[in-house]
Amino acid sequence: MFGKLMKYELRDCLRIFLPLWGAILVIALINGLTEGIGLSVSGRLMEFILHILPALLLFGLSFGMFVIALIIIIRRFYSGLLGEGGYLAFSLPVNAAQHITAKFFTSLIMIAGCVLTGFFATVILMAARGYLGSAREFLEKTGKFLSLYPKTGILAAELVLILLLITSYTVLRLYSGIAVGHLFNSHRGLWSVIAVIGIGWILNTASIWISRLFRFFGNSPSIEINVNSFLDLLRYLNLLQGVFGIVIGFLIAGNVVLWLATWLILKKRLNIL
Amino acid sequence: MNTSNIIQCSNLQRTFGKTIALNGVDLSVGRGRIVGLAAPNAAGKTTLIKILAGLLQPTAGTALIDGEVPGIYTKSITAYLPDRPSFPDWMKVQDSIDIYADFFADFDSEKAGDICRTLKLDRSAKIRTLSKGTKEKLQLMLVMSRKAQLYLLDEPLAGIDPAARDFMLHTIVAGYNEEGTVLISTHLITDVEKLLDEVIFLKEGTVVLHRPADEIRETDGKSVDELFREMFRFDV
Fold first, then answer.
1. Which residues fall within 8 angstroms of residue A206, CB to CB, at 6 or more apart?
2. For A3-7, A101-105, A145-149, B120-124, which range has the lowest pLDDT when averaged over its residues?
3. What is the DSSP track for B161-221?
4. Which residues of A touch B (CB under 8 A)?
5. Do A152 and A146 touch, CB atoms closer than 8 A?
6. Which sign, positive or negative, has the C-alpha torsion A113, A115, A117, A119?
7. pLDDT digits over B33-55, tens only?
8. Contact yes or no for B24/B206 (Cβ under 8 A)
9. Residues with Cβ < 8 Å from B15, sequence gap 6 or more?
């Protein structure tokens, strides 16, 4: 049943996102080509049409893509599951955990799609303008520098994991807030907003207190950062790896708490009005 | 599971803030029956049906379908018709059929196709292009194309013109699984009276009457509609 649920979730989202992603890539190409072919133009209007308008369009669409992603993530949970759409969703022989997980994975896939579209739009722009060689050179130099530190791979993997966990934390915070808001019989939108803010505050406060407890019991020394040499930098990179580990731990705990809260509300207190 | 009663509610309560929607409902409904759930507006009909369908959690008490609390199993044997359109507008008629065929093992695609032809429903039509009445017919068609053990029909005749009501009633009678039970919530009793085996009257969230329809007619010498009007008459 989960696979079927994912099929309908993805189809519903892709029907909105595929044209949007396509439009951004096409505009990136047009933008790059108009800059890259060295067309000699004269006149302010031509300058605007060939150079500024495509750039504005690309910027607007890219920004709009993430705004639309956010709106769709909220709408699909708020009205698609806990509003009007709940009449269909909760009459299907599927449990609350599967509903939340399907929506959650679909949201992450759509966000990943937006990031990839942004990345490819940038690559297209750079390729069309002939900057790809410089970019490759920059990446090679950065890679050589980072290869001096043996754990670069781990650090990079941790960083990617942190970004992924922050994204999922944001999505789950929205879900749990909306789930709390749906318990109210009126002004659900308002209560959802208050709940999203409140949940964030509670989790932030909890993480501060937990880190204080660790410091109290662990008696950890304060750290002074003082970089004078490359060896110092490597030492701090090691330290950064440890800090990333702690951040990942906190984020995983936050994600689990938010998922469980959403699941418990939908399982025990479902309130489709 | 195959308990003798398909629906079993005991001391079922549901409140919305200070409003009491269900106030200790005790109810047993057997199999193979067509049961009318009649009540004035805001007496708890939709709340009861939503709890049975698994869309609402009761505040207290229990509601069991085939001996189980509403969940995956009960939803797989229950065909629920909500009192409003439940399919997203962007979907096509065929998409709604596909969803039912994908998720419900007891869905009869051939039967759905037959009803679609009778209704002259274009499968490629977007749901948003259908009229309100046609949307309701589509939903009823999907629900009645299942061989369910329990049909929960919430106000299937509300907002439908009298000519279409006959079609809806015909779809219900011709379509339901005869070993299953149909629970129809309505206040248009005259239209459904001839179909009913049993009648349940709800008043202020409590069951005030649960009797066979024939018994009412024979013992009380009244139609179900007349009894309903008598019991729920507003004194002016």
1. none
2. A145-149
3. -HHHHHHHHHHHHHHS-TTSEEEEEES-HHHHGGG-SEEEEEETTEEEEEEEHHHIIIII-
4. 1, 4, 7-8, 12, 15, 80, 84-88, 90-95, 185, 268-272
5. yes
6. negative
7. 999 999 888 888 999 999 999 99
8. yes
9. B21, B59
Share of chain A above pLDDT 90, in %: 43
Q: Where are the alpha helices (DSSP H) in chain B?
A: 45-53, 72-77, 93-103, 109-119, 132-144, 162-175, 189-192, 213-215, 224-231
Residue A64: CA count within 13 A, CB half-sphere: 12
- A268 and B71 within 8 Å at the Cβ level: the answer is no
List, in order of start, the domains of chain B with CATH numbers: 5-231 (3.40.50.300)
Nearest residue, CB atoms, A91 vs list B56, B80, B102: B80
Rounded Cα–Cα distance for residues A7 and A14 (Å): 10
Q: Quote the CA–CA distance of B4 and B26 in Å, as a whole number.
A: 16
What's the pLDDT tens digit per position in B53-73?
A: 999 999 999 999 999 999 999
User: Is the pLDDT at A147 greater than 50, yes or no?
Assistant: yes
Chain A residue with CA closest to B89: the answer is A85
What is the percent of chain A where pLDDT is above 70? 85
CA distance A122 to A125: 5
Smallest CA–CA distance, residue A91 to chain B, in Å, is: 6
* Predicted-complex ipTM score: 0.88
Q: Which residues are bridge partners to B12 per DSSP?
A: B25
Write the pLDDT tens digit of every residue in B145-193: 999 999 999 988 876 777 777 877 888 887 777 788 999 998 778 888 8
State which residue of chain B sits closest to A97, comparing Cα positions: B72
In chain B, what residues touch A12 (CB-CB under 8 Å)?
88, 90
Mutate to test the interface with B, among A13, A91, A184 (most CBs of B within 10 A): A91
